[in-house]
Amino acid sequence: MGVEIAVTGLTKTFGSQTIWRDVTLTIPAGEISVMLGPSGTGKSVFLKTLVGLLKPDAGSIVVGGQDVPRLREHDLYEIRKLFGVLFQDGALFGSMNLFDNVAFPLREHTKKAESDVRRIVMEKMDLVGLTGAERKLPGEISGGMRKRAGLARALVLDPEILLIDEPDSGLDPVRTSYINQLFIDLNAQIDATFLIVTHDINTARTVPDNIGLLYHRHLAMFGPREMLLSSEEPVVRQFLNAQTVGPIGMSEEKDADELAAESGQELPPLPPIPLQLSPSNGLRRRAQREPGEWCRTHAVTPPPGSFASADHAIPYAAGLAPAGALASRSGEVG
Questions:
Q1: Residues 84-118: pLDDT tens digits?
Q2: Where are the transmembrane segments (predicted)?
């Protein structure tokens, strides 16, 4: 079972530069959350602050009942054992083969016998589809395989929280789809709390249970996937639908002249909300919601064509699904 991360009033500056201020959100235990934002908005800084590598100027990060920024070094060392981290490039040791890379945290932080180390490493490598590649060096494998090896290493200590920094960087769309499915399958198996930082809109629209957006030195919004994908909030709408009309410009925010020139322009319609990815075995994850559940509960009309399967879309009448309409499609999870 994953662990909840409760963030309150978090502020981080570097000198006179404010990265973000007064960030407050709760990352639910055992769910997959995604953090988005234009380049330079401090998404990676946010991950480093959660795990205690950087100290905030103000605010709290409560993990397992402990406030991370206020822990002494020894206690911080212990709380970090709850975390597994997948870095952008995998961060593998180039002189070690994949087996030794994955084994490194076990040899560094535990006193397990080498037979136990081998069993655990092979189990995690099998989990990410790398059985048979354990003797290869990082320079001998593809970028996608390096990502999976980094993920196996992040999993060897059985973390309750996984922080994943831009897993799609350097990957083509097909490999990105494979690793997205892997995150869904892993969450179904280990029930850990996932926080994924990404720029990939398809990942944000199809993978997470929750989405957050950092923009202009603050948290613009955080909540269930359907809430953000149906949102009319300008910056959320623009970013999640990759539109040019809105407050985000080439240098993060547009100037007054650009915004004035756009005033009165008709916004393109919101695209349909896709079905969320399901585990490969067809079973429901614990955190998974019925497609359209949030929209139905909050009386929000989703964009036309939302929650479409291969054959048809889930019907909505006057913005709400008829009673039992979603339940009757229980075999199709969202």
A1: 998 877 688 989 999 999 999 999 888 999 999 99
A2: none
